[in-house]
Amino acid sequence: MPVTIRKMREADITVWAEMRFKLWDSLSVDEHLTDISKMLRAKKRWGYIALLPSGEPVGFAEICIREYANGCTAQPVPFLEGIWVHPIQLRQGIGRSIIQQITDDLIQSGFQELCSDASLDNKQSHMAHASWGFDETDRVVYFRKSLNCP
C-alpha cells in the first residue's frame, strides 16, 4: 500500500496525540498533547507519521536521542520509543516504511544504529522488530524501589 512517511510538525499535534493514546492509553489525549509540545521544544525527540494518499493518518513512530541504551554500541543513540499502525492496515508494509524512513534520516544524520525495546511477552513486537532488521541484544527485567521520602 502506498503511504507517505514524514516527520510530524506542530500542525500534526492533535492527530499525533490521538494516535499516541491508541498506543499508550495510560495517559489522556490532553496529557499526550502536553508531552508532544514539550518534545517539539526539546528537539531530542520527534515523531514520524504515515499517511495514505487521501491524507488519512494510519501510523506513527517516535524516536528519542538517548545518552545510552542497553545493547547499543554507540552513544548517544536514537531509540525507537514506540510505533503504532492502525489495526486495519497491519501487515501491509506501513511499519516497515516508517522504519525505513527513520533509518534513512538517521544514516543521513550520521548515526550508526537504531535501538528499541519490547516487553518480554510481546511476541508480535519481537517478530515485527526482526522483520524490520533489528537484532535482539539482551533480555532484561527492570526493577524499581520506591523511596518513601517525607
Describe the fold and architecture:
With 150 residues, this protein is an alpha+beta fold. It has a single domain (4-131), classed as 3-Layer(aba) Sandwich (Aminopeptidase). It is built from 4 helices and 5 strands; from the N terminus they run βααβββαβα. It has helices at 13-23, 29-42, 94-108, 123-131, and strands at 4-7, 45-51, 57-66, 77-85, 115-116. A 5-stranded mixed sheet has the order 1-2-3-4-5, sandwiched between helices. Helix 1 (13-23) packs across helix 2. The longest helix is centred in the C-terminal third of the chain and has 15 residues, at 94-108. The protein starts with a strand and ends in a 19-residue tail after the last helix. The mean pLDDT is 92.
Jot down its keywords.
4 helices, 5-stranded mixed sheet, Aminopeptidase, alpha+beta, 150 residues
Low-confidence stretches: none
List how many beta strands DSSP finds. 5
Question: Looking across the biggest beta sheet, what order are the strands in?
Answer: 1-2-3-4-5
Question: Strand count, sense and closure of the main sheet?
Answer: 5 strands, mixed
Instruction: Summarize model confidence as the mean pLDDT.
Output: 92
The SSE order reads: EHHEEEHEH
* CATH C-level category: Alpha Beta
Total domain count: 1
Number of helices: 4
How many angstroms does the end-to-end distance come to? Answer: 56 Å
* Shape summary: globular
CATH superfamily: Gcn5-related N-acetyltransferase (GNAT)
**Strand content range:** 15-25%
